[in-house]
Amino acid sequence: MIRIDAHQHYWNPARGDYDWMPKENSTLNRPYGPDDLAPALGKHGIDGTVVVQAAATVEETEYMLGLADATPSILGVVGWIDFENRDHRRHLERLSQHPKFLGVRPMIQDIPDVDWMLRDDVQWAYDALIDLDLTFDALGFPRHLANFLTIAIRYPKLRIVYDHCMKPQIRDQMAGLDAMTDWAAGITRLANETSGVCKFSALVTEADDGWSSEDIQPFAAHVIDAFGADRIMWGSDWPVCRLQAEYDDWRGMAEDFVSHLSAEDQAQIFGGTAARFYGLT
Asked: Where in this chain does the record put each Amidohydrolase-related domain (predicted)?
Protein backbone atom coordinates (compact mmCIF):
# COMPACT_ATOMS: atom_id res chain seq x y z
CA MET A 1 0.00 0.00 0.00
CA ILE A 2 1.12 3.54 -0.72
CA ARG A 3 2.94 5.31 2.12
CA ILE A 4 2.08 8.98 2.52
CA ASP A 5 3.13 11.84 4.76
CA ALA A 6 -0.26 13.56 4.87
CA HIS A 7 0.91 16.90 6.27
CA GLN A 8 4.11 18.85 5.71
CA HIS A 9 5.23 22.28 4.55
CA TYR A 10 7.68 23.89 2.16
CA TRP A 11 8.33 27.60 2.43
CA ASN A 12 10.68 30.45 1.66
CA PRO A 13 10.41 33.26 4.23
CA ALA A 14 11.87 35.71 1.72
CA ARG A 15 8.49 35.58 -0.03
CA GLY A 16 7.23 37.83 2.77
CA ASP A 17 3.81 36.28 3.39
CA TYR A 18 4.54 34.21 6.53
CA ASP A 19 3.31 36.76 9.06
CA TRP A 20 3.15 34.23 11.90
CA MET A 21 6.78 33.15 11.63
CA PRO A 22 9.04 34.48 14.43
CA LYS A 23 11.93 36.27 12.75
CA GLU A 24 14.30 35.28 15.57
CA ASN A 25 13.45 31.57 15.33
CA SER A 26 16.29 30.03 13.36
CA THR A 27 14.58 26.64 13.20
CA LEU A 28 11.59 27.99 11.30
CA ASN A 29 12.82 31.20 9.71
CA ARG A 30 14.75 29.64 6.85
CA PRO A 31 13.85 28.13 3.48
CA TYR A 32 12.65 24.53 3.38
CA GLY A 33 12.24 22.72 0.07
CA PRO A 34 11.91 19.22 -1.38
CA ASP A 35 15.65 18.56 -1.33
CA ASP A 36 15.67 19.09 2.45
CA LEU A 37 12.99 16.48 3.06
CA ALA A 38 14.03 13.90 0.45
CA PRO A 39 16.46 11.98 2.71
CA ALA A 40 13.80 11.41 5.39
CA LEU A 41 11.21 10.32 2.82
CA GLY A 42 13.68 7.86 1.35
CA LYS A 43 14.72 6.49 4.74
CA HIS A 44 11.12 5.73 5.72
CA GLY A 45 9.98 4.48 2.32
CA ILE A 46 7.43 7.26 1.93
CA ASP A 47 6.04 7.48 -1.61
CA GLY A 48 4.83 11.05 -1.44
CA THR A 49 3.45 13.88 0.63
CA VAL A 50 0.63 16.36 0.98
CA VAL A 51 2.02 19.89 1.17
CA VAL A 52 -0.14 22.24 3.24
CA GLN A 53 -0.37 26.02 3.16
CA ALA A 54 1.47 28.07 5.76
CA ALA A 55 0.53 31.56 4.58
CA ALA A 56 -2.83 33.27 4.20
CA THR A 57 -2.29 34.17 0.54
CA VAL A 58 -3.37 32.71 -2.78
CA GLU A 59 0.13 33.50 -4.01
CA GLU A 60 1.64 30.98 -1.59
CA THR A 61 -0.78 28.35 -2.88
CA GLU A 62 0.39 29.05 -6.41
CA TYR A 63 4.00 28.82 -5.22
CA MET A 64 3.30 25.36 -3.77
CA LEU A 65 1.58 24.21 -6.96
CA GLY A 66 4.66 25.30 -8.86
CA LEU A 67 6.77 23.14 -6.56
CA ALA A 68 4.32 20.28 -7.11
CA ASP A 69 4.71 20.57 -10.87
CA ALA A 70 8.46 20.07 -10.48
CA THR A 71 8.43 17.51 -7.64
CA PRO A 72 6.96 14.02 -8.16
CA SER A 73 6.93 13.32 -4.42
CA ILE A 74 4.36 16.10 -3.89
CA LEU A 75 1.14 14.18 -4.40
CA GLY A 76 -1.14 17.08 -3.56
CA VAL A 77 -1.42 20.62 -2.23
CA VAL A 78 -3.82 22.02 0.37
CA GLY A 79 -3.98 25.76 -0.24
CA TRP A 80 -5.77 28.86 0.96
CA ILE A 81 -8.50 31.24 -0.13
CA ASP A 82 -10.10 34.15 1.69
CA PHE A 83 -13.36 32.88 3.18
CA GLU A 84 -14.38 36.48 3.87
CA ASN A 85 -14.27 37.40 0.17
CA ARG A 86 -16.88 35.80 -2.08
CA ASP A 87 -14.83 36.85 -5.10
CA HIS A 88 -12.35 34.16 -4.07
CA ARG A 89 -14.76 31.61 -5.52
CA ARG A 90 -13.06 32.37 -8.83
CA HIS A 91 -9.66 31.57 -7.31
CA LEU A 92 -11.06 28.31 -5.94
CA GLU A 93 -12.49 27.37 -9.33
CA ARG A 94 -9.21 28.19 -11.08
CA LEU A 95 -7.05 26.36 -8.55
CA SER A 96 -9.32 23.33 -8.70
CA GLN A 97 -8.30 22.82 -12.32
CA HIS A 98 -4.78 21.91 -11.21
CA PRO A 99 -4.52 18.12 -10.87
CA LYS A 100 -2.60 18.35 -7.58
CA PHE A 101 -4.86 20.92 -5.88
CA LEU A 102 -6.80 19.12 -3.16
CA GLY A 103 -8.57 21.72 -1.05
CA VAL A 104 -8.02 24.55 1.40
CA ARG A 105 -7.10 25.31 4.97
CA PRO A 106 -8.12 28.64 6.50
CA MET A 107 -5.80 29.55 9.38
CA ILE A 108 -8.57 29.41 11.96
CA GLN A 109 -6.21 28.83 14.88
CA ASP A 110 -4.81 32.35 14.38
CA ILE A 111 -8.19 34.12 14.16
CA PRO A 112 -9.13 35.74 17.51
CA ASP A 113 -12.88 35.16 17.10
CA VAL A 114 -13.53 31.53 18.01
CA ASP A 115 -16.90 31.77 16.23
CA TRP A 116 -15.42 33.09 12.97
CA MET A 117 -16.14 29.84 11.14
CA LEU A 118 -19.85 30.20 11.94
CA ARG A 119 -20.22 33.73 10.55
CA ASP A 120 -22.82 34.15 7.82
CA ASP A 121 -20.34 35.80 5.46
CA VAL A 122 -18.04 32.74 5.28
CA GLN A 123 -20.66 30.02 4.75
CA TRP A 124 -20.44 30.33 0.96
CA ALA A 125 -16.96 28.80 1.10
CA TYR A 126 -18.12 25.49 2.57
CA ASP A 127 -20.77 25.21 -0.14
CA ALA A 128 -18.16 26.00 -2.79
CA LEU A 129 -15.85 23.27 -1.50
CA ILE A 130 -18.71 20.79 -1.70
CA ASP A 131 -19.68 21.95 -5.20
CA LEU A 132 -16.10 21.55 -6.44
CA ASP A 133 -15.46 18.30 -4.52
CA LEU A 134 -12.56 19.82 -2.61
CA THR A 135 -11.36 19.13 0.92
CA PHE A 136 -11.41 21.24 4.08
CA ASP A 137 -8.51 20.99 6.53
CA ALA A 138 -9.85 22.09 9.92
CA LEU A 139 -7.05 23.82 11.83
CA GLY A 140 -7.78 24.80 15.39
CA PHE A 141 -7.31 24.29 19.10
CA PRO A 142 -9.51 22.48 21.63
CA ARG A 143 -11.57 25.67 21.99
CA HIS A 144 -12.69 25.17 18.37
CA LEU A 145 -13.94 21.60 18.81
CA ALA A 146 -17.60 22.48 19.31
CA ASN A 147 -17.73 24.80 16.32
CA PHE A 148 -16.04 22.31 14.00
CA LEU A 149 -18.67 19.81 15.12
CA THR A 150 -21.36 22.32 14.16
CA ILE A 151 -19.81 22.86 10.72
CA ALA A 152 -19.40 19.14 10.06
CA ILE A 153 -23.03 18.46 10.99
CA ARG A 154 -24.29 21.48 9.04
CA TYR A 155 -22.43 20.37 5.92
CA PRO A 156 -22.52 16.55 5.91
CA LYS A 157 -21.14 16.40 2.36
CA LEU A 158 -18.07 18.48 3.28
CA ARG A 159 -14.89 16.40 3.08
CA ILE A 160 -13.31 17.47 6.35
CA VAL A 161 -10.09 16.43 8.06
CA TYR A 162 -9.30 17.58 11.58
CA ASP A 163 -5.69 18.74 11.62
CA HIS A 164 -3.19 17.80 14.31
CA CYS A 165 -5.68 15.91 16.52
CA MET A 166 -7.10 19.38 17.27
CA LYS A 167 -3.93 20.32 19.14
CA PRO A 168 -4.43 19.05 22.70
CA GLN A 169 -2.42 21.24 25.02
CA ILE A 170 0.00 18.58 26.20
CA ARG A 171 2.29 21.18 27.76
CA ASP A 172 -0.55 22.09 30.15
CA GLN A 173 -1.02 18.44 31.08
CA MET A 174 2.72 18.23 31.76
CA ALA A 175 2.36 21.25 34.07
CA GLY A 176 -0.29 19.50 36.17
CA LEU A 177 -3.40 20.94 34.52
CA ASP A 178 -6.18 18.87 32.94
CA ALA A 179 -5.78 19.16 29.17
CA MET A 180 -7.33 15.77 28.53
CA THR A 181 -10.95 15.70 29.69
CA ASP A 182 -12.62 18.37 27.55
CA TRP A 183 -10.39 17.71 24.54
CA ALA A 184 -11.07 13.97 24.68
CA ALA A 185 -14.83 14.53 24.91
CA GLY A 186 -14.72 16.83 21.89
CA ILE A 187 -12.65 14.37 19.87
CA THR A 188 -15.08 11.58 20.71
CA ARG A 189 -17.99 13.66 19.45
CA LEU A 190 -16.20 14.50 16.20
CA ALA A 191 -15.46 10.82 15.68
CA ASN A 192 -18.95 9.59 16.56
CA GLU A 193 -21.13 12.32 15.09
CA THR A 194 -19.32 13.28 11.87
CA SER A 195 -17.76 11.51 8.91
CA GLY A 196 -14.54 13.52 9.18
CA VAL A 197 -11.09 12.02 9.46
CA CYS A 198 -8.18 13.04 11.68
CA LYS A 199 -4.54 13.89 11.07
CA PHE A 200 -2.24 12.05 13.45
CA SER A 201 0.27 14.89 13.54
CA ALA A 202 1.77 17.74 15.56
CA LEU A 203 1.21 16.22 18.99
CA VAL A 204 4.87 16.68 19.80
CA THR A 205 4.76 20.41 19.05
CA GLU A 206 2.04 20.82 21.68
CA ALA A 207 4.33 19.36 24.35
CA ASP A 208 6.78 21.36 26.43
CA ASP A 209 10.54 21.06 26.50
CA GLY A 210 11.60 17.89 28.26
CA TRP A 211 8.67 15.86 26.93
CA SER A 212 8.76 12.09 26.67
CA SER A 213 6.66 9.66 24.68
CA GLU A 214 4.76 8.91 27.89
CA ASP A 215 3.47 12.49 27.90
CA ILE A 216 2.09 12.11 24.39
CA GLN A 217 0.90 8.50 24.38
CA PRO A 218 -2.46 9.01 26.18
CA PHE A 219 -3.51 11.63 23.64
CA ALA A 220 -2.44 9.47 20.71
CA ALA A 221 -4.26 6.47 22.18
CA HIS A 222 -7.50 8.40 22.51
CA VAL A 223 -7.43 9.54 18.89
CA ILE A 224 -6.74 6.01 17.69
CA ASP A 225 -9.53 4.57 19.83
CA ALA A 226 -12.01 7.27 18.83
CA PHE A 227 -11.49 7.40 15.07
CA GLY A 228 -10.10 3.97 14.22
CA ALA A 229 -7.30 3.35 11.75
CA ASP A 230 -9.38 3.86 8.63
CA ARG A 231 -10.13 7.46 9.67
CA ILE A 232 -6.62 8.45 10.78
CA MET A 233 -3.75 9.65 8.58
CA TRP A 234 -0.21 10.20 9.78
CA GLY A 235 1.54 13.46 9.03
CA SER A 236 4.94 14.77 10.03
CA ASP A 237 4.10 18.47 10.26
CA TRP A 238 7.70 18.94 9.11
CA PRO A 239 9.45 21.34 9.50
CA VAL A 240 7.27 22.72 12.32
CA CYS A 241 7.84 19.46 14.19
CA ARG A 242 11.51 20.41 14.40
CA LEU A 243 10.64 22.78 17.23
CA GLN A 244 10.45 19.69 19.45
CA ALA A 245 11.51 16.65 17.41
CA GLU A 246 13.15 15.67 14.16
CA TYR A 247 11.26 13.81 11.45
CA ASP A 248 12.75 10.45 12.48
CA ASP A 249 11.79 10.98 16.13
CA TRP A 250 8.11 11.65 15.45
CA ARG A 251 7.84 8.93 12.81
CA GLY A 252 9.39 6.37 15.15
CA MET A 253 7.19 7.43 18.05
CA ALA A 254 4.05 7.21 15.90
CA GLU A 255 5.04 3.73 14.76
CA ASP A 256 5.43 2.71 18.40
CA PHE A 257 2.02 4.14 19.28
CA VAL A 258 0.29 1.99 16.63
CA SER A 259 2.47 -1.12 16.94
CA HIS A 260 -0.35 -3.02 18.66
CA LEU A 261 -2.57 -2.66 15.59
CA SER A 262 -2.73 -5.09 12.70
CA ALA A 263 -0.48 -4.59 9.69
CA GLU A 264 -3.52 -3.55 7.66
CA ASP A 265 -4.55 -0.93 10.21
CA GLN A 266 -1.03 0.45 10.33
CA ALA A 267 -1.01 0.65 6.53
CA GLN A 268 -4.21 2.70 6.65
CA ILE A 269 -2.72 5.18 9.12
CA PHE A 270 0.53 5.55 7.19
CA GLY A 271 -1.00 5.91 3.75
CA GLY A 272 -4.33 4.32 3.01
CA THR A 273 -6.56 6.83 4.79
CA ALA A 274 -4.80 9.80 3.16
CA ALA A 275 -4.99 8.17 -0.27
CA ARG A 276 -8.74 7.62 0.05
CA PHE A 277 -9.58 10.97 1.60
CA TYR A 278 -7.52 13.11 -0.76
CA GLY A 279 -7.89 10.85 -3.81
CA LEU A 280 -4.16 10.17 -4.16
CA THR A 281 -2.39 7.48 -6.15
From this structure: 4-280
